[in-house]
Every structure is written in structure tokens, then in C-alpha cells.
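ASSEMBLY PREDICTION REQUEST
Request ID: AP-0331
Submitted by: J.K., bench scientist
Number of chains: two
Total residues: 816
Priority: normal
Notes: Please return the full assembly, not individual chains.
Input sequences:
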Amino acid sequence: MEGSDSVGQSGSDQPESPRRRQLDRLGREEAFYQFVNNLSNEDYRLMRDNNLLGTPGEATEDELFSRLQQIKDSPQQQNNTPNAENGEDPVEPPESFEDPASGDSLLDWLNTVRRTGNTTRTGHRGNQSWRAVSHTNPNSGDFRFSLEISVNRDLAELLILLLLLKGSSLEGQDVVANPPQVPMETEVVEESVVEELAVIVEPEPEVEEVVSQEILEPPSSPASLLAQRPLSPPRRGLRRPRSHSPEPRRTRARTARSRSPFNLDQLDSLSNQRHVHSSLGPSAATSNISVPQVEGSSRTRQHVLPRQGTTDGDVQPSRAAAESAPEVQNVTSQEGEAAVGDGGSTGRRPPTIMLDLQVRRVRPGEYRQRDSIASRTRSRSQNSNNTFLYESERGGFRRTFSRSERAGVRTYVSTIRIPIRRISDAGLGEATSMALQSMIRQIMTGFGELGYLMDSDSDSLDSNRGANTPADLADVLNNPGTTPAAAPTADVDDEPPVVAGVRARTAEIDVDEGLAAGPPASGGRARPRPPVSLEEPSSLPFLRLAHFFLLNDDDEDQPQGLTKEQIDNLSMRNFGESDALKTCSVCITEYAEGNKLRKLPCSHEYHVHCIDRWLSENSTCPICRRAVLVSANRESVV
Amino acid sequence: MQRASRLKRELQMLSSEPPPGITCWQTEERIDDLRAQIVGGTETPYEGGVFTLEINVPERYPFEPPKIRFLTPIYHPNIDNSGRICHDALKLPPKGAWKPSLNISTVLTSIQLLMAEPNPDDPLMADISSEFKYNKQLFEEKARKWTQEHAVQKNKVTARVSSSTLASDANTQTHPVA
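STATUS: Completed
Returned structure:
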């Protein structure tokens, strides 16, 4: 929230009382320097790496101080890995996953998350700000964790990543009814360019029910479906279904349905969906399904559902659409499995956990609504010009990756569905642990996958841009780790009625981006994901992801900055009395005693906070333009 | 951002010791929206003209270069019809040469220099550029004409009042602070 708020403020306040604002700002900037000067090296690093410093003038000294205290007080959360990811904030969630990576600790972690209650954390780093929100419903046990990252590249553009983790209590309780509401996500979208990355891990139990019902019906009588959906108010849609047919829900895992952003397409594709349904049913479980649209729609639903509560008005149209959208296909594969297991038990969760990864970029003006999800849905549906979907299944895990693009909006969705044998039942038995572990891994993989994409891109950046070529895609697909079947794609919009088979055709070609998510991870429970190494400390997947998309879109000459490690390797000293008077040429301020200076290999000095920021995006000395990195490497070698 | 305090300092410097032929000031209390005027150099086709520029200081300044464009039409190989300037100091690396140690003043000075010495090898306006290269006389003629038409015009108004002096006189008059 802070991030967006501040953005909003700066936008709106400026015209009103610019002078006063400027004065305030100046005062805060002074305070900022003061504050930074007084920080110990560790504290400075701590704050910088956690993006707590923000930019001068942004926060008051008191705020900075409280941030520092906060982070110190909760070392386990942020400090544990001093250098790496936390700094990049966004990654936190994954990290946490990682730590507990063995055995029941995963469970612990999940439970911890669940118990954290409602908290919000925010931070800044460079031109990025992030906000992490966890929300727990004590009654239902549902929890949600969302992470948003916004990157302000230019004045005009804002990039937002949204990570959403949603789960219901691990215990066996039935959570069926309550759709988890997560208020927070909404706000994100204010900026012009938005990227959202959503990861949803969800035991399917609650929401899905609705879907199922709908789904069931459609196949048989499409017409009726159509009629029905529109009628129902968007939000309610979910519930309504529930009431109608409780059973269906359980049966099929609601797996995929709601998640997909594509819902809008549904209408068009209704007919298709049905087809899909039928067709999918049989094959889905084992092999990839190529029905992009359907999935999309189904997923959307889910998203929509939870959020609907939150946001109403704007989104309605889309919702309606969403509702109407058949969630059908999803049901097929996973649900089939799930259904088998659970069938009757009311309380049980569906056996599936969904992981959703979505990345989206929205251009300014695209939409401004509070509810990002809703908007997402909407835009999705309206525009899916270019949609491609990739699915693979392996070892009971099914993953889907899709991308759609339409004027200015590109959405990537990665969904992984993991059947879990009844988490609810047995407490945290062996099986459960396993399931959780695999789930986490999946999650990680998901990130990794994105990271992979990013990597490839960045590689291309450095060496060749070719990464995006079809060939790469092919590689990805062929990746041994990947699933056996993969490949279906479809342009949803364009050809609604087409059957799944047809759609398959498009996928590979469309994917110029190289986004074809490597399915690699999906299979593996424990095995480390190949292509992308999460371990790599300096490059957080999220950041790279952002980078990737940015690169993709506009300029490729995005300057490359140094990593934190590299920056930290540069020498640092305190400015002393004896030093000749000098001025930091970044802020044009004379050094004062006690200022922390960083000296680049070329001997030029700057305030640490000034130069660190520059170096995080550039690799040359601001005065002489000599490459900092090369020399730095040399030094370290010596 | 560092922007506020840094800009404050820069503006102070700009007003206390402005580079020759350049003025720069803040508009309407907005610190991120500046105006500047560059006097056409002597012995250039822009002599006698006063060129107004708009300076937009991005939020991330000084980590990003200021955005500068000419408001006054100018006939120049590296400046297009909408006033955009092709100048590497106005772009971020790796393409450009912006660095935080530059500032508004130095950038304006380098634009002044660019006016005096166009860079036809990195043209924004291909026609003008080839004209500059192969038919310099024509180029200068046109540039002078444009200068008279656009860059001197405003001054004429004030000049008229004080009995239609030439632009050179007007310059001094219109130049507030400098």
C-alpha cells in the first residue's frame, strides 16, 4: 500500500501545494542523509538490502528508524540471508519456502504463514517498492499471502508484480463455504504499467464448488449455461453454484478453473469449452490438454471469486463473463483424480493444490481499478488476441502455462495443479508432508520457470537476443525434465469454436517470447530445478522477471547494474575532518564528517547511498564512466 | 528522490553563476518543470535568436537525465520539428552518456555547443543534415531565416515598444536574470 499510496500522492499532491510539499521533501531529504550517516555499516546494509531506505525524502526519519527497528526485531524473516534475496524483497515468499524445504518444516512454514494473521509489510529498493500482505481468516483457516512489486522505470511506467499465495487451512476442516477474501491485491494497479505475478497455492476446497456445478452443466446444455451465467450477478455467481450443487464441487477438484485470466473468452468459446470438456475428460489426466481458453476461463473464475467480494462495480461485466465462462476443462483431469478420492466427504478439501503464476503488464490507462484481479480478468477476456497455452502433465502434476497478449497487455499464467491426498485427513502424515513438499517445490519451480525465462532473455541480452526464438521454445519443450506431453496452444479469441486439437497448432509458433515455460519443474518433487537456480543469490527471479519483461517490451538497452555483492565489495570509508572538502557529484552535496563514502576502483568517491543506487542500475563511474565491474572483479581476483 | 535537494542547489547555482548565454528558471513553483533560454552563438546562423527550452526533471533525477526539448523552432540537423534533441548526454547509458555528475547547467551548455556545432553524422533530421554537409550555405541561410522567424519574434514585441530595435538589443532586454 505504501508504495502505491506514495505514488498516488506524489501525483495528486503536487499540483496542489507544490511549494509546501517541496519544503517538506527537502526537510525529509536532509533527515534522510542524517539518518544514513548515523547508521552503522550493518544497519545500512540491512536497510538497503531490504529496500527500507527508499529514496531520500520519501520517508521521515522516524519512519526510517521504525523500519530499521522492525527489521531488526524480525531477523528471522528478513535477515536470515543477509545478502541475497530479501533485499529484493519480492522473493521472500519463495525463500521462506525454501528454508523449510525439508520434511515437515514446510508444514510449519505454511502454518506459520497461516498464523501470522493479518500483516502488511512494505519496502523499497531503488525504484522498486514492494508490499507483502498476509491475511488469515481465523474461522476458515484460509490464508492468503500476496506480494506486489512495483517498479517505476520511467516517470511514466510502473511495473507491478503480484504474488499471491492462497491456501486454506491445512487441517481437515471444511472450508468450503468461505471464499477467501483478500482485500489487498487490488490496490496495486494504479500505475500505468502493471505487471502482476500471482501465485496461488490453494487447496481447492472452498471456492471450486461453484465452478463444478457450472461446469457440469455446460457440457450437456450449452445454451442453458449461457443463459444462466449472465443472469447471475457476478459476485454471487460463485456462491450460487455452490448451493445448487454441493456435490459436484467436491468431486472435481476445482483445480484450475478460477485461476485463469482468460475468462472473458469464455463466452466465445463456450461451445469450444464443451468440446473440450468432453474431450479433455479422458485424456486430460495423463497428457496435456490443449484447451487454452477453457482453462483460462476456469481459472479466472477462481480469481474472480475471491476478489469479487472485494471489488464490485467496475469489474462486473467481466465477472459476468467469467461466470459464464466454463471452467469445465480443468475439472477434467485433476478433478477426476480428486473426485475419486474425496467424493463424498463433505469436509474434505479437494485434493488439489493449485499454483498459479501470473504475470501481466498493463499499460497506463489500461485500467485503473482497484481490484487488479478483476481488471485482469476483464482485460483478459476482452482482448485475448494472442494467447498461447502450454500444458503438460507429469507424475500427477499438471502444469499449464499460457500467455496472451493484446494491445499493451500481456498476461502470463502458469498453473500447476498438484493432487494431494487429503491433506485434511491425517494431519501431517508422511503423505502430507510429501505433498506439501512437492507443492512447494512446484512453487519454487514456478518461480524458477519464470526465472528461466528471464534468464534466457537476459542471456540473450548479453550475448544474443535469440533466446526468444522458436528454437528456444522447442528446447524448453524438449527439456528432458519436462513433461511428456506438452504443446497445446490456442488462440482463443480468434477461433472460438475450434476444438482442442486445432488449437494445439499455434502454441509454439506464437511464443516468440520464449516464455514457453519449461515444464521441467513440474515433475520433480525434490529435484532441484534445472534451468533456473533459485540459489543464485544476486538475481532474484522476480527482479529478473521484471527485467525480462521490460526488456522484452521496449528497449533492450536496459543498463545492467551491479549486484549487491559486487557493490559491497567496493571500498567504503567515513569522511573525516582531515579530508579536503569535496562534493558528491551525484547529489551535489558536500561531504560532511561522518558521511559514508564509497570509493570506486577509479578512485572517485560518492556517498554510499548515492552511488549504490546508481550502481544498482549502471555499471560505470558517474564521473569518468569507467566500468566499475571489471576493476572490481580484478580486485577480487587479486 | 534526491531530486529536490539537488535541484534546489542546481537552481541556486544557475542563478548565481549561469553559464554564458544561458538562463534557466523554475516555472510556477514546480521544481520538476524548468524553462531555459539559450542565446544563439555569435557567428552561428542562430545569432540574434533566443531559444527557449523546456526541461522536465524526472522523478529519478539525477539517476536519469533531464528531458529537454526546444520550444522555439530551430533549424538544426540534430533537433527535430517538435524540438527533440538528439544528444547523447540526454540519454542513459549504454546508449547515451548521461551520468549523475552532469547537471542541468552542463547539459544546457552542451546543447549550446551542439547548436554551434551540429553533428551531421548522427542526424535526427536527415534532410537538414545532408544540407549541412553538402550545401552549407543553404543550410545557414535557412537556419538564419528560421531564427529570424521564430527566435527573434518574441523579442520583436518588446523591441517594438522600445522602437523596433534589432534582435540583439532585444536579447538583452528579454534576458531577465542573465
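REVIEWER COMMENTS: The mean pLDDT of chain A is 47.
SIGN-OFF: pending second reviewer
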